[in-house]
Amino acid sequence: MEKELTTKKVDEFLEIFKKGEEFTKDLLKENEKLRYRIAEMEDSLQGSAGEEKVRVFEERIKKLEDEVVAVKERYKRVEEENKDFAAKYIEVEEINNALANLYVASYQLHSTLDFDEVLRIIKEIVINLIGAEIFAVLLIDEKTNDIVPVSTEGVTLEAIPKARIGEGIVGSVAKEGESYFAADLREGGDVEKGMPMVCIALKIKEHVIGVIAIYSLLMQKEGFNNVDYELFNLLAGHAATAIFSAKLYTQSERKLTTIQSFLELLKEKPKK
Fold this sequence. Notes:
Elements: H1 2-109, H2 115-130, E1 132-140, E2 146-153, E3 163-164, H3 168-176, E4 180-181, E5 198-204, E6 207-217, H4 226-267
Antiparallel strand pairs: 1-2, 1-6, 2-3, 4-5, 5-6
Helix pairs in contact: 1-2, 1-4, 2-4
């Protein structure tokens, strides 16, 4: 009887042990499942954090790129403004140089009453300030109304034909008092035909005393700018005044010399 009871207790213990073993196995399985789930969640969290970091970095990069574009645009605007300032500065410098040169030239023109010296100064001005290579100074002969060359550069005096007031380019400029500029300055003028590319009226107020006829420019001179046209206008008036004053002075000197010679003859005692 006792043996049967002992066997029964052993069986019950084994049964309990077996159930404990199964419970332990189930617990281990559940633990494995939980660990796997935790690992998945950690991976998911890490992925989300990485995506968030990527998104933040992308936003920062986009912001920096926008700032770079804005800086480039500002730099471009500043560069364009600097170019404008530089161009204006150069233009002002050219105008100042031209005015300074014209002041010196005007001073030289009015510093002498010698007719030949005045013509020489005019030639220097036209060469150095205007950039002319072949040109002539022509004056109106009041007795014949012919427009006669009195000084030339790059061509002989005899090669410049006379002109009549109202005829051709030179004659029209002398009559109207309005300067002439060819439509295409690169083609140049024709000396033999008396067709200059530029013809400037030499005027004292509204009275024309002659012209400056330009037939070609120096190689480095491609054309005229606004400063050149202002120089033409100022030169025309100053050159005309200097020429007119020199002519009057020369004529008065000749008359004075003639009168003095006549007086000397009157003072001479008649020979016995």
